[in-house]
Amino acid sequence: GMHHDVIYASQPWGLPLSERLLPQHLQSLGYMTHAVGKWHLGFYKAGYTPTQRGFHSFFGSWLGHQDHFKHTLGLKIHRQQKARYSTGYDMHRDLNVSWEGVGKYSADLYTEEAESVIHQHNVSRPLFLYLSHTAPHSPYQAPDRTVARMRHVTPKKRRIYSAMVTKVDESVGRVTQALKDKGMLN
């Protein structure tokens, strides 16, 4: 199996197509299904991507370890090496590259997308919204303003990590509020 590590960009596999996923089942029951954030289950063929695995829409990254502002991916070729390489830009809307978020923090992008999905949803149908943040995953980055609010946390790396967790916490609050505003929190 694939349980030994994550799926990297150049690897020709993904979660087997023989596995029926929750959004596929929910779609067959009439749910609107949307995925926002990190996919990380394979994309080497279109059939492995979120919109082919039961989601009506997808906005986010197909991999992990991406820069939270540039949305580019850089990984060590081998964990022991210090050299890094970039596998390029990784932000997608469905099957297309999405340039709309360049320079914007990933947690904010994903939160805004989740809020938009909720606000546009027709409440006559049930909704399944999968929101998978890339924070607080490496690389450790957060907006300067949020890091500054954590000045009481030391050392600096922990301060940045705390800021990342804070952004995810804010996201949960905003998404919960959007569900309340739409009358969908039940």
Tell me the CATH topology: Alkaline Phosphatase, subunit A
- Mean pLDDT equals 90
Distance between the termini: 38 Å
What is the assigned CATH homologous superfamily? Alkaline Phosphatase, subunit A
CATH architecture heading: 3-Layer(aba) Sandwich
Largest sheet: 5 strands, mixed
Total discrete domains: 1
Strand order of the largest sheet: 6-5-2-1-7
β-strand number: 7
Nearest-angstrom radius of gyration? 17 Å
Residue share in helices? 25-40%
Q: Which structural class fits the helix and strand makeup? A: alpha/beta
Low-confidence stretches: none
Order of helices and strands: HEEEEEEHEHH
Question: Which descriptor suits the 3D outline?
Answer: globular
How many helices? The count is 4
Q: In CATH's first tier, which class applies?
A: Alpha Beta
Instruction: Tell me the strand percentage band.
Output: 15-25%
Attribute tags:
186 residues, alpha/beta, Alkaline Phosphatase, subunit A, five-stranded mixed sheet, two-stranded antiparallel ribbon, 4 helices, 7 strands, Sulfatase N-terminal domain-containing protein, Sulfatase_N, glycoprotein
Note down, in words, how this protein is organized.
The chain is of the alpha/beta class and 186 residues long. It has a 5-stranded mixed β-sheet, sandwiched between helices. The mean pLDDT is 90. It contains 4 helices and 7 strands, in the order αββββββαβαα. The radius of gyration is 17 Å and the shape is globular. It has helices spanning 22-28, 106-120, 144-149, 156-181; strands at residues 32-38, 57-61, 72-76, 84-89, 92-93, 96-97, 127-132. β3 and β4 form a beta hairpin. The termini are far apart. Helices cover 29% and strands 18% of the residues. α2 (106-120) packs parallel to α4. It has a single domain (22-181), classed as Alkaline Phosphatase, subunit A. Keywords: Calcium, Glycoprotein, Hydrolase, Metal-binding. Its cofactor is Ca(2+).
